[in-house]
Amino acid sequence: MATIRHYLSLIKFSHTIFAMPFALIGFFLGWLRPPAASFDSLLDKFQENQQWGLLLKYLGLVILCMIFARSAAMAFNRYLDRHIDAKNPRTAVREIPRGIIAPKHALFFTILNGFFFVFTCSFINRVCFYLSPLALAVVLGYSYTKRFTALSHLVLGLGLSLAPIGAYLAVTGAFDLLPLLFSAAVLFWVSGFDIIYSLQDEEFDRGQNLHSIPARLGKAKALVVSALLHLFCVASIVGAGIYGEFEWLYWGGCAIFVAMLIYQHAIVRPDDLSRVNLAFMTANGIASVIFAVFVIADLFINS
Question: Can you tell me the distance from the alpha carbon of 174 to that of 178, in angstroms, rounded to the nearest whole number?
Answer without folding.
Answer: 12
